[in-house]
Amino acid sequence: MTIRFLNDSVRGTRQTSAPQSMPPKKQARPPFEFEGHSIPAGSRTLVNLPVGVFIDHSQVNLTVSVVHGKQPGPTILVTGCVHGDEINGTEIIRRLLKSPSLKRLKGTLLAVPILNAPAFMNRSRYLPDRRDLNRLFPGSATGSLGSRLARVVSDQLVPRCDFIVDLHTGAVNRPNLPQIRVTTEDEKALELARIFHAPVIVRAPLRDNSFRSTAFEQGKPVVLYESGEALRLDAVSIRHGLEGILSIMRHMEMLPPKKSSVRKKKITPLVCQKSYWERAPIGGLFTPLLALGKTVEKDEVIGFVADPYGGIETSVTASRQGVLIGRTNEGMADEGDGLFHIAIFSDLDQARDQMARSNLALPEMPEDEDDHPVPYDPFMDEIDPDRE
Ligand SMILES: [Zn+2]
Q: pTM above the 0.85 mark?
């Protein structure tokens, strides 16, 4: 894939005409000029982009961690918490920023662990005025607080990068299987999505006024990662997301390749053209019978909704065949509530085979590393023998 090197105008254009007898002088990479900050090559800094003022008169900022590599290369923008309660992305970016491999970065990393600070502070998906930031793009400098935030992202951040990884999760109590969403007509994004090595890629049409649509209009491919659920740090989602970003950065030669001895089996993603929600046929107590990542046949019974007064139990059947990529974990449902999110796939044998291999290739936790979530089992705690 060909990419433009926005920040490297020096590349190949300003060669010094040194005399032939002298070796050409190695030119240092110019600093990254960003909103009044000059970040030298081989350094990093936090830049606060002002957005507005909160009700308590404190400043609302969009805080960007800029890591400017010593060597030239592309600029990647990684964003988390566009929805304020989707914190797996924040943790993925925190770990990315601590990665020792960034010392050898070629190019520039713009990392935004908390894109939507007003919603993050409220531990909510939505902005304080109950709007969804991801429906306010490209935003307006004279609009609502969220609209101003969207404008800062559209005008000051997106134009400065070559491509974007945007990190999301499912809603509260609605975990997602690790998956990538890419815009149907964006082939560049699909290429990057394959390199991310998530088990499933769903090609999704652009949603009006979303971050993805603004980036698409500016010609910036977006890989949107979805995994886990809101308000929780989920180990598999976090490890998988971090590995995906590093994989893309290695592919773009921003980071050195992995040593062959530690290279693991790569997941071949299942590319689906469409997905749908199977909804509750009636209200009641809901019991799912299908786990994330499993394939499902048409008309297969995948759960049931029961009348709390001991009456009928109504089966929930799959109206299309495919792979389960999202599910509610709530034990109650009103009629029409979304229960199962199924990615439609026609060749079920291939899907079953690929999902089984993906399952084996999911990143494991090394034994010498602490990870989330903290294990806790009340029945396994050591009992104090002196306690009466
Ligand atoms: Zn989201």
A: yes
